[in-house]
Structure formats: C-alpha cells, structure tokens
Amino acid sequence: MKKKEFIWKHKHLIGLRELSREEIEHILDTAAGFEEISTRSVKKAPVLRGKVVVNLFFEDSTRTRTSFTLAANRLSADVVEFTKKSSSVSKGETLLDTAKNLEAMGIDIVVIRHSAGGAPKFLSRNINACVVNAGDGYCEHPTQGLLDVYTIRKMKHSLQGLKVAIVGDIAHSRVARSNIYALTKLGAEVILVGPPTLMPAKIEQLPVKVSYSLDDVIGQVDVINMLRIQFERMGANPFPSVKEYSHNFGLTVERMQKAKKDILVMHPGPINRGLEIESEVADGPNSVILQQVQNGLAVRMAVLFLVNQGAMVKK
C-alpha cells in the first residue's frame, strides 16, 4: 500500500511541544534529504529563490545564527542580518515595530532569538511573515532540539527505547526543554541530572526521571547531553564553587570509563571546557559535538523550507 503523502501545514515553528511525533519525524526526514546539498561543488538549491529571510537576533549567537544564514543561502534565499546594537531598538523601538518595519520591506521569514519567553509566538500572531524560534527566554530552542535528535537518530538509527541523560543547568536551559519534548515523543527515556538548585520548578510535570548523581546514571545511558552552565542567567550562585560542580557533574575521562563503550557525548555549545566537560572527552571518540553543528545546517534548511511550504498551504 502506498504511503500517504505528508502535507506540512505549519507556517511557524515556535516550539516542539506543540508538534506530533509524525511532524517531528517529517522534519528529520526532510533534513536528511537536504544533507546532500552541502556535499555539492555548488552548494545551492533554488527552493527559496526570491524569498527574504531576516535573522532577528536580540541575543548573541555563533552557531545558530551562522547556521540559519548558511541554510537560507543554500536554499537561494536573500538574507538580512539584524543586530540589536546597530538597530533602532537601541533608540527605544519596540519588537513589534521593528518586525513590522522589516515586513514592510518585503520579508518572508523571520528567525528570532529573544531573551523574553513568548516573543516568537507574539510575533507570529501579529505579522504575516513566517516565524521561526531560534531561542526564547527559558522556553524553547526547537531547532537545537531537532538537530540533537537528528544526530542521535543518524548514529543510533532509532530513538525508541534509548536512555538519554541531560546533565547540568536544566533550570535555565531552553535546549533542555526542546530536547525533552522531542526525545520523549520519539520514544526515548529522558533522565535529568544535576544539583537540585539547577532543576526547574514543577519538574514533576515533565515526562522525565530525575537524578542528582551523574555517577549513578552514566553507566545506564546511551546518550549524554552536557549543558552549558549559564552564569549570565543566574542570580545567586546555585552551587558552592565551580570546582565542586565540576567534581560532581563534570564529564571527565575517569567518569567515561563507567559509561557504555558506544555512548554518544553531546553538547549544544558553547563549551566551558574543564567545567561541564574535559577537553579529552569533548574531542574524544564518543563525541558527536561537531556532528551536531554539521547536522544543524540540514535541519535548519528543512525548517525554513517547511515553514515556507506551510505559508503556501495557509493561502
């Protein structure tokens, strides 16, 4: 029996919480189809020719911003780079006024990163362009969650039944939230690991297990995703010292000896080497950190392509 063709209907990508397993898998399958473009001598496909993508970043970024820029370029879109420091936001212009003025110039897709949770959803309700969330407050970072599960699926072939530990600063991590939604919908078991002070409120409402000991967990899991300690988002010090945190929750060469031989080591970056993870582990044979970055390009190409497709369906 011929498989029914999947029709993508979403004009925006705000988060993974709202997507079904089928929709997440469709993004991953679409990304797999775009991987080949990056291997060509001319790294271009005409699928977004004539479209304009604006990177509306109100927070600093290296990987995400550059990845979206390259993704849009490889799909033949024109790209506008927005920086808060060189814009009228520094003169008091509101987010909505900024977006509406850009929209008046004929943009089609807004990729937004903002410190305020809910900013992408707010924009999606107030402008006509497609909106893609590149990270909002403590809420979600959907394309990071997608590239993480894409990487795991590529290496392990399936997420069904896998045990995945997410370690570190869960409380301040939008990456952790998107990972939780994607991983559990694709059949993985998620264990959050860290000190109690770095666990989010209402953690019992999430479909996860919790451990306060990395040593208790590391021998059980198939994947370990080490999160950055986000000092810039913290008020009071959540642990006595950096040295103590590293001793209890850092991924060291010694700790890796307790892990499965084929464990995947991940990190969304940027890495605080020697704090969350030792260099020997970050650069070691189990690390797929650079593969995450590489896979992010195909995933973001898929997302830009699909939201544009969703906009056409909406019409």
Supply database-style keywords.
315 residues; alpha/beta; single chain; Rossmann fold
What does this structure look like?
The structure is a single chain. 37% of the residues lie in helices and 14% in strands. The radius of gyration is 20 Å and the shape is globular. Helix 1 packs across helix 11 and helix 5 (142-156) crosses helix 6. It folds into two domains: 21-140 and 294-314, Rossmann fold (3-Layer(aba) Sandwich), CATH 3.40.50.1370; 142-292, Rossmann fold (3-Layer(aba) Sandwich). The strands form two sheets. It has a five-stranded parallel sheet. The chain has a four-stranded parallel sheet with strand order 2-1-3-4. The mean pLDDT is 93. The protein has helices at residues 21-34, 63-74, 95-104, 119-124, 142-156, 174-185, 214-217, 242-249, 253-256, 279-282, 289-314; strands spanning 52-57, 78-83, 109-114, 130-136, 163-167, 189-193, 209-211, 223-226, 264-266. By secondary structure, the protein is of the alpha/beta class.
